[in-house]
Amino acid sequence: MGAGAVGPLVATLEHGAFDLKREVAMALWQLCKDGRHLTVAVEAGALPLFLGLIRLPDTEVARLGLSFTQVVLDLMKGGVKMVEEQDGIDAIESVQYADDEYLSGLSNFLVNKYYGEDYGLEEEAEDDDGELPPWRRPAVG
Q: Is pTM beyond 0.85 here?
């Protein structure tokens, strides 16, 4: 990490042959899974590449993409918005009904946890000068 390996790894993930991409994705995920090097990898452009991996038919690679996305959502400040801005919700939802139980289960969990029915309520409140629209206000009584 001190030698600046993340940039070349991300470039290889973007432009390398498929088998090499799989190995690089595993290496980057291993470096980032505990959050230590996550910001460096995301700043180097890893997030959209991992989101792209989710959509691939290779289950192992899709799992890596979804697992990396989970780490971003769980550990990065602003990660929820970052994933959304990169069309990540669509990528996550693309495997909600996958035959692979891990993919479908994790996808459903992430969608419900981060983009469920309460998602965006804070922004709506800010847009309305702190007041929720009538249909979003709790019932009184």
A: no
